[in-house]
Amino acid sequence: MKEISILGSTGSIGCNTLKVVEAFKGEFGVAALGAGSNTELLAEQVEAHRPRLVSVSDDESREKLIFELKQRGILNLPLISTGVEGLTEVATCDRVEIVIGAVVGALGLLPTYHALEMGRRVALANKETMVIAGELMTRAAERSGAELLPVDSEHNALHQCMRGEKREEIKRLVLTASGGPFRNADKQTIENATPAQALKHPTWRMGAKITIDSATMMNKGLEVIEAQWFFNCSADEIDVLVHPQSVVHSMVELIDGSIIAQMGVTDMRHAIQYALTYPARLPSQLPPLDLTALSKLEFFAPDTDRFPCLRLAYQALRRGGTMPAVLNAANEVAVAAFLDEKIRFGDIPRLIEAACDAHQISPANSLETVLNADRWARDWVTQKIANQTTAVTV
């Protein structure tokens, strides 16, 4: 039995990972769970899987979790840690072979890095980690011999398409995008969209932050940066196509003109299972893709005028250094402000671009450097938002 840890166990990826574990009884054991403040759901997970270690966001959540567990009659409590230190303990828990990285945002950076340093297989759904510090993560994996596998459906699809192919025979990678809720909306409608409108994703059911990123297409921009580090390619070798049906999850074009595509149902359990069982493939409990039910597969070039976040991500990738870290941090703060109705939807890319323009790039050669850039961008955007007039005119 392989022991696993899950960073972000109460989120969508974390919950789906536990469903995969339950589908393969005897294959995987849950050693540690890292969560935030959803102590009720975490208590359910602890009761079902009995990990040795859990982590929550703070002391208040720790006390709530203890109460929840005792209410369930669980007297033999796991060790309970808190904060980033707690997540790092989850990632480096003894005897763990596979770490699922599914916390949202920069919070996953340090735990992921330390897991890779220890030579663990990291199945990564936290794209921000690779955006902020992709070079550091890949170096850590190379030094320790750790496996770094993508769980994001697009990068997981690329990994599957590239199995057995020689790197020099690959011409370009094609990431597909659903287009989000505003795929056919005009610029003015997008500019003034409400949080409720932006959270209505047409294909996937995800957390609030990633759903807003899909609506701005920053999600795809972050994936472009992530792909550079997962697959050792340049910005010019990565394309994005809008594919509303979300059936083709990504494609690889070879130098002879052949295109290999990975297709499947829109369920993250497929990608999670692939990362857990790699290089083996095991039977899935998911329904197969019914090709006869597909009336058409459409592909469109993205419109970076209506969705400037994708353009900003390509720019950050080409500029390199600490710029992707600033892009990501600025986006996180802007998205949170939009969800809190402090800024308009159209302010998100404007704030990100202004922060990138104000940043002095440094080489991203240490955790301290990228974390400093991350903090600088958060402070800079927060200050801009504090001045409402500035926030809507930058």
Structure report:
With 394 residues, the chain is of the alpha/beta class. The chain folds into 3 domains: 2-151, Rossmann fold (3-Layer(aba) Sandwich); 154-265 and 287-304, no CATH class; 320-394, Orthogonal Bundle (Rna Polymerase Sigma Factor, Chain: A), CATH 1.10.1740.10. Helix content is 47%, strand content 14%. The chain contains 17 helices and 11 strands. The strands form 2 sheets. A 7-stranded parallel β-sheet has the order 4-3-2-1-5-6-7, sandwiched between helices. A 4-stranded mixed β-sheet has the order 9-8-10-11, covered by helices on one side. The longest helix has 20 residues, at 367-386. It starts with a strand and ends with a helix. Mean pLDDT is 94; it is low at 390-394.
Summary, kept brief:
This protein has helices at residues 12-23, 39-49, 59-71, 83-91, 109-117, 127-144, 153-161, 187-191, 195-198, 208-216, 218-231, 269-277, 308-319, 323-339, 347-358, 367-386, 388-391; strands at 2-7, 28-34, 53-56, 79-82, 98-101, 121-124, 148-150, 170-177, 238-242, 248-254, 259-263. By secondary structure, the protein is α/β, with parallel strands linked by helices.
Could you outline the blueprint of secondary structure elements for this entry?
Blueprint (H helix, E strand, L loop, with lengths): L1 E6 L4 H12 L4 E7 L4 H11 L3 E4 L2 H13 L7 E4 H9 L6 E4 L7 H9 L3 E4 L2 H18 L3 E3 L2 H9 L8 E8 L9 H5 L3 H4 L9 H9 L1 H14 L6 E5 L5 E7 L4 E5 L5 H9 L30 H12 L3 H17 L7 H12 L8 H20 L1 H4 L3
Parallel strand pairs: 1-2, 1-5, 2-3, 3-4, 5-6, 6-7, 8-9
Antiparallel strand pairs: 8-10, 10-11
